[in-house]
Amino acid sequence: MGVRVSLARSYSRRRRWYLAVALSAVALVVAACSSSSTSSTPTSSNTASTSSVKTGGQAVFALDEDVAGFNPLQYSDNEYVLGEIDNEVYPSAYIVNPNFTISMDSNIFTSITQTSSSPQTIVYQINPKAVWSDGVPITAADLIYNWQAQSGISKYKDVGNAAYLPASTAGYDQIKSVTSSNNGKTATVVFGTPFPDWQSLFSPFIPAHIAEKVGFNNGFQNYGSSVAVSGGPYMIQSYSKNVSLIEVRNPKWWGTPGNLNKIIFDFILDDSQGPPAMANGEVNMVNPALGSLTELDSLKAIPNVTTSITPGLEFQHIDFNEANPYLALASVRHAIAYGTNRQQMIQRLVDPLTSKIGLLGNRIYMPVQPQYQDTSNGYGAFSTSQAESELKSAGMTMGSDGYFHPNFGPEKGQDFTLTISTTSGVEERQELEELFQADMKAIGVKINIVNYPANTLFGTIGPKSEFDIIEFAWVQSPFATGVDSIYCSYTNTADCGENWDHYADPAVDKLLTEASSTTNTATEAADFNAADALMWKDMATLPLFEEPTMFGWSSNYGNVIPNASSEGFTWNAQEWGEKV
Amino acid sequence: MWSYILRRTVAGLVVLLVVTFVVFILVVLSGNPLATMMANPKISPATIRAAREALHLNQPLLERYWNWLWGLLHGSFGTSFSGQPVGSQLGHALLVSLRLAIPVVILSVILAVVLGVVGAVRQYHAVDYVSTGMSYIFFATPVFVLALLLKDFLAVDINQWAGHTILYTVGPESPGFTGNWWQTFVNSTQHIVLPVVTLVLVTYASWSRFQRASLLDVLNADYIRLARAKGLSPRRVLYVHALRNALIPVTTVVALDFAGLLGGVIITEIVYSWSGMGTLFYNALAGGSGISPDVYIVQGWLIVAAGAVIAFNIVADVMYAFLDPRIRYA
Questions:
Q1: Boundaries of domain holding B301
Q2: Number of separate domains in chain B
Q3: Pairing with B258, which of A32, A100, B22, B113 sits 20 to 30 Å away (CA)?
Q4: What is the ipTM of this complex?
């Protein structure tokens, strides 16, 4: 799944926790049609040319933060901006397309096949032409190293006998072995326990022969010869901290060469400075972390600039702390959900940017994903009468001041009062809370707004469950495995550490476990959707709306196709070019 | 004089030592740097444990302080969470900030002194009113407003009128720029004009008011009256007898503001994408990679900022002695 990311942090920090593969409608159909022991694979990488472009020239892309390091698999370097930089540098098994389908990168692999489901076995056939920019062939040794580094298995050590520090072990920790054959051009991955999202693995992967020498944890922290090694159409030529990073064509690239001579990443830390820089011709492309109406208007006012607002995988939601004696009652949670006018929130906060966002009916899949189903079954529909009815059934009486008074608990006889908390200093969230507060007042619930810095909210308030209601955004992963730790019963502290809400439902646990251990993608989606339907019935959390993603680029460039997935804007940068 | 400087320096170092402890405690109290990482379900407890050990967060407080202080005393500011030496990051940021601060101070002092003198000498004349009005306008205008106005209405319009880029709005240099020394100098100048103009307008405004008020005080003093009575020319009275004394308060302000310019122009840096001390501090506070704040950078920055304030205070005291012969330090 994603991480709790404060909107404030997403202004300047976007995390790419998940690896760059999504389960597609194509893959679902393919998997559903296949037997349990074999499955065919998605075909070649997407080529999405839209116009004729010339060879040569350069493009300048504004990035809203500098990189922390250059290893996308290491815990401290794994950031969205690095992903946008290394899209064209490090190879990946699968690519997420703008429509959230996935494609195998046929430049790197000639085929990837699940040859057995028990034990689950995946065979990777590496393109014989695939070679790193220093001339070393890309082989199974690279996959073996990348597995070991991310497996979490203590016997595998980094240089200096240090423990590896990967950003995630998800999936890799379920692999039993990775073996090489066919002179290193075939890698066979055998799973100890089934992992349905296996297409998320090795996307990207780093050069083993480099990492083994310089170290996985620290060898890619500073720009140097180790970072310059590429397995993609471009390679990093130079880097000036907090100023810019320049990529040039990889001379050893065996596929279709990139059109541009250079791709320049300009670090402009404040998203609002992107439009003036575009107006001044200093940058050609922007992708602000959180697009505002002001930025959109600024971009639209610039001649010869194209803008795009696309729903993505990020969504806002509120959590209920069931340790609160009132929120422990499902009727109270349902009352709050019925009383929340989510459509109005969308109208006020999202519609100025795009009309493509509707009510969210699922907390595991987003509407842009083919697995999405509205599993709300009417729960969460806006109805003040229903809300009041639920509060009455919970044992509350309407007071003369317009607020309900509980007949039990610590607020017996007083105004029923709850607090809502989010990250401080974020205008959109402040407005969202105010809308929520007004909605609750209309149904007789008093809401106090108490916000904290992101560090405190996610470091103390959330994990210690020191809240009544908490609001933040999830940056969703295309892969649903990983949501377990958020929604499985909080009593299971080993596996459900992200359940801050004291939520527990054994039926949901069962479905989540089944979903995460099946190799059948259709079954996985069905189980996750069934779990989500139960969570609506429980009103575990209330999903609010998707966050749209904004892109802007100079119309002088062709083949620029926004991608709101984890791939980011540069997913097809080798196809960019100045229009003829 | 030298013994005075030595005494002040030693006292400054003692203050700095106390500041290291205060800074350390304040940063510790600001929160758990690994909070966001810990909130990420995909990062294993083993990774978090390893990160805590790698960053010495598992050590007792005083031990951690002592290790950091010991490193400081040996010229090391520690390592940031990204594994890069804090010292080199601070050094790079300081150089960027100095590139802005030095021309800003020089131009602001010249402008402030000239306009302050004109305003005082021509008190209540048209030129004084205009100068005062302009000062108040620039003093009252927020830096980010001024920066955005210059960016949007000056740079973009000039560039569009010229048909090519004369004034750049992003960064200290064009990415990937190559050329001979003159071309590089021109390119750098094109990038530095806007942020310097922004800061000069804001900075000179307050300094000119100080200068004007200070000179008016001096011009009304008895010894100036005597100088005029002795028949000295107005020019001599002003530049030889009055101005030197009138510069003393301004010297104090300039010294303190210079230290502030080194660390506090975050808004200008953000608007123009200059990665100086302000940006470094802001990014370290915001953190990244699941780690916030980047404590070693924050601590190092605060120490450098405190050191700058102490150092420039000493410089200001020394300047007094040169400006006013009556001041002699024992």
A1: 89-323
A2: 1
A3: B22
A4: 0.70
